[in-house]
User: Fold this.
Amino acid sequence: MTTSDAQPTSDTQPVRPASRREKSLLTTVLSLVVVLAISILVGITLGPAPVPLPETVRYLAAAVTGGTIDAADASGYSIIWQVRTPRVLLAAVVGAGLSVVGVAIQATVRNALADPFILGVSSGASVGASAVVSFGLFAGLGVYALSTAALLGALGASALVYLAARGKSGLTPLRLVLTGVALAYGFQSLMSAIVFFAPFSDSARTVLFWLMGSLGSATWSGLPLAAATVVLATVLLLWNSRALDVLALGDETAAGLGMDATAVRKRLFLLTAIVTGCLVAVSGAVGFVGLVIPHLVRLLVGANHRRVLTIAPLIGAIFLVWVDLASRTLFAPRELPLGVITALIGVPVFIILLRRRGYLFGGR
Amino acid sequence: MSITLDGLSVHLAGAELVRDLHIETAEGEVLGLVGPNGSGKSTALRCVYRALQPSRGAVLLDGADISTLAQRASARHIAAVPQESSNDLDFSVAEIVALGRFPHHRGNQPLSTEERAVRDEAMRRADVVHLADRGVLSLSGGERQRVLLARAFAQQPRVLVLDEPTNHLDIHHQIRLLRQLRTDSTTVLIAMHDLNLAAATCDRLAVLANGTVPHIGTPTEVLTPELINEAFGVTPSIVRHPRTGIPQLHYDI
Assistant:
C-alpha cells in the first residue's frame, strides 16, 4: 500500500464561515416583512369598492388607537375594518400556515409531492362540510356549523389515516402516503354520495366552491384561533428544525444520530393534522400553496429547515394576500375560488423556476 | 469505549437474521465483520446504532446495556455510516456534516465556534472541505460516501460503526480511510467484503456464516483456506504480504 502521504491541497483551505449566510437570511426576512405589510395594506385598500389609501390608513389608525370618525365615513370604515381587514389578515395567516405545514408534511412523509391535504385532511373536511351544506347538520351552531363540521371531518379523517397506517415496523413514510391517498378516495366518494342525495339542488355548487377555498366568511372572531395555531406551529417547527433535517436523511441515519424517526413522525403528523384542520375550517381547501411554496423557498434558500421555515410563512402569506385580492376584484362582484387562482399563477411561475435553476429534489 | 454484542438475536418478519451472536471488542480495537451476503453483518450493526431492537440479548457499551440509555445519549458515543442512505433534499455538504452535532445539542441555535471547528475538522479528515458549499445531490457516489463519513466523524464518537464504508470510494480514499481507522483511538466495528483490505485494516475479524457460531480471531488465525471455504464456498490461495506479513487471498477464476 503505497499511496502518497502528501496532504491533498484541500486540507489547507479555510472553511467558509456561516455568518454571511445568517446575515443574508436576516436581510431577506426584513425585506419580506416589509413586502407583506405593503401587500396587506394594498389588499385592504383595493376591492370591488376601492377606498383611497389615505382614507384606509385613517380608518385603520382610528380602529387601532380607538380614535373617532365622522358618521359619514361609517360605511367606508365598516368595509375596511369589519370586512376587509380580517379577511386580508386571514389570507396572510392561511397562506403562512399552509406553507409551514407543507414543509412539515414533505419532511414527515419524505415525498416531494406531499401537500397538507395528502393525508386525507381536506377530503375528510369536505365530508363534514357537505353534510352541513346538504342536510343542515349542526344547524344549532349557526354560522359556525360549516367550520366546526369541517374541523371535525379533518381531524376524524387524520385519526383514521393514522390508525390504518400504523404498523409493526412503525409509521413509515410510504405507508402514510399510500393510506392517506387511498382513504382520501373513500372520503371523496362519501362526499359525492352526500351531495348526490342532498335535498337542495345547489349543494354541489356550494360544496365545490368551498372545496376550492374561499375567505369570504372571514370575521374578526375566527381570526385569533387560526392565527395562534399557525404561530404556535411555526415556532414549534422552527425549534425542532434540526430534527426535520435529520428526518430527511432517512430513518436509518436518524437512528444513528440518536433520533427515533417514528416518534418524531407521529408528533409531526398530529401537529400537521391540527393546523390543517383549523385552516380548512376557516378557508376551505386552498390547494397548491402548501405544495409549491415549500419548493419555491428551497429554491431560494436551500434545504436547511431553519431557513426554509423562517422564509416559507412570509412568502406564503404574501402569496395568498395577493391571490385573495385577485379572487375578489378580477370578476367583481363575483368571487373566484382561491384554488383557481393559486393554480393559475403558481403553476407557470413554479415551472419557470424549476427549469431555470438546477433545482434538485430526489436526485439527478 | 468498548462494545460488546451479548447473545444478540434478531427475528424480523419470521426470519432469524442473527442468532446468539457474541462479539467483544477491546477499547480502540478495529474489529471487522466479514461473511457472505445475508450472514447478518448489517443486522448486527443496525442493533449497535439502534436502528433495530434485538429480539434477545443486548448491545453493551462499556458493560452497560445501550437500551437503558436514551437514543440521543448513545448517539453521543456511537456514530454510524449505514449502508443505505437516501436523501431527497439538496442540503449543502457543510450542512449534512453539521448534522453530526445533532445528538450533542438541543434547539435550533447555530453551531458554536467550537462546534464549527469540529465540523471543519471532520470535513478535512474525510477530504470534503473543497465540497463544503456543494449540494449533496450533485455529488458522485464516492464523494457522497465521504460526506457521510465526515458526518460520523463530526459526531466525535468513541465507537464508530461502518457498514461497507469503502463502497464507491476510489483506492486513494479507501486506503486513506482505513489508515485513519487504524491510527485513531476510536473503537471501530466495520463490515467489509474485501477480505484483503479487511485483513490489512482490522485487529481481529469475525467471520459470520449462516447459522454457525462465528470464528473470531486475528486475520492470520481466521483467514485460512478451510474457514473461507466453510463461510463462502470458495477456496483461496493464501500468501503473506511481502512487507507486512498479513495474509492476502488470491482466487482461481
In short: Residues 3-251 of chain B form a domain with the Rossmann fold fold (CATH 3.40.50.300). Chain B has a mean pLDDT of 91. The longest strand of chain B covers residues 3-12.
